[in-house]
Amino acid sequence: MAQEDVFKKVVSHCKEYGFVFPSSEIYDGLAAVYDYGQNGVELKNNIKQYWWQSMVLLHDNIVGIDSAIFMHPTIWKASGHVDAFNDPLIDNRDSKKRYRADVLIEDQIAKYDEKIDKEVAKAAKRFKENFNEEQYRTTSPKVLELQEKRDALHERYSKAMNAMDLDELRQIILDEEIVCPISGTRNWTEVRQFNLMFSTEMGSTADGSMKVYLRPETAQGIFVNYLNVQKTGRMKIPFGIAQIGKAFRNEIVARQFIFRMREFEQMEMQFFVKPGTELDWFKTWKETRLKWHKALGFGSENYRFHDHEKLAHYANAATDIEFLMPFGFKEVEGIHSRTNFDLSQHEKFSGKSIKYFDPELGESYTPYVIETSIGVDRMFLSVLSASYKEEQLENGETRVVLSLPPALAPVKLAVLPLVKKDGLPEKAREIVNELKFHFNTQYDEKDSIGKRYRRQDAIGTPFCVTVDHETLSDNCVTLRNRDTMKQERVPINQLNAIIADQVSLTSLLKKLI
User: Fold this and answer.
1) Radius of gyration in angstroms for the set of CA atoms belonging to the chain, rounded to a whole number
2) What pTM, to 2 d.p., does this model score?
């Protein structure tokens, strides 16, 4: 199945099975805004809990906070967002559509990569077991020609972005003959900057109101509270502060479902370290965060680091953890060495000292910061995309199954009475009422047992138990495994012991130690 088709099916599946709905749908929706349904919110909460516990439970020097969405507007002046939080935008005069110039060029670079991969795939099919991919990539005239064009474009683009040369960005678009996806023309305007922050007014009267912003990131709430946390928690450097919260960006190019939205959620941890040790800690957190992702079991080949060539003005190292989505490798988490820029700026703009006194050195200094920032919504999409499968069964039927890691699954166990009579529903309800205190358990009696199995497969439920007439006499049920579809007879009083460890977050967290 083509990857583009997989993505369309994932999007459709999300709506059909209560994972994600278009926001305000009965009013024709709101662009790039989505609501999480009954199964989506459970999966999302489980992802957040996996991250939260991996931070604050497994590290005795990391604590959490929950800062406000509204903050003093000077915070965003200090952080640089008021003056520099911009995207380079370009309009097509024929379609009247607006695009990010950098995204158009990055898509063009990706097209060169796709062409190269297609040439390699064709050669592999032609030469079969005699094919040497590395040799072909370094000797094929066609591949070398494409690679040269790709590298030249990439170098030119990197220079333009580093210099934020808007004229050069437009010229690249013209030289590469990039067309508008809607009109198919190259009738482009000049490139200009657009600030991404949403603003509103705070105050009871127009004269007394103050312009405030919806936060475009959650990090600043940590920075302005770092000294409060350090003092009240008696924290010693190195230590971290974790936070999960909503952020808002007025994205012009919001696309690819929940991958890029105007309202989204972040899981961020800012790790405060002694100056001079930051690059060692940067390396440590790169390894730690990649291990967290790989523990989900989606395969090492689906992850890669992408080191930044263009560093933000405050950073001295930055990388992304990218995951192979149905539309290519995309960023799900960023790891940055932010130096002491943020804390220094807040000290400067607030006029208050927020230096850390190091009792071991007997001196005060402004800590350096390592940031790990992961988009909850992107993580959600990567988990769903990796888990979505269509399997051919021996009887010729096809089943759709979400092979979610059991600890992340919205429902852990479905209890199904074979028929809706003879005391089976009552017995099934007894089991639900006993196990619901341990994990999310669902009761389902509608339709045939086969249809109910398929329904649970589609939402990723790892286990189902069927209550039949024998259950009333032997107190045993049939336990079915989602992935293998194998069934076994087990005593009811052993269900919790059999299932609990496999579906708890502990099973994931143990992989990180």
Assistant:
1) 26
2) 0.83
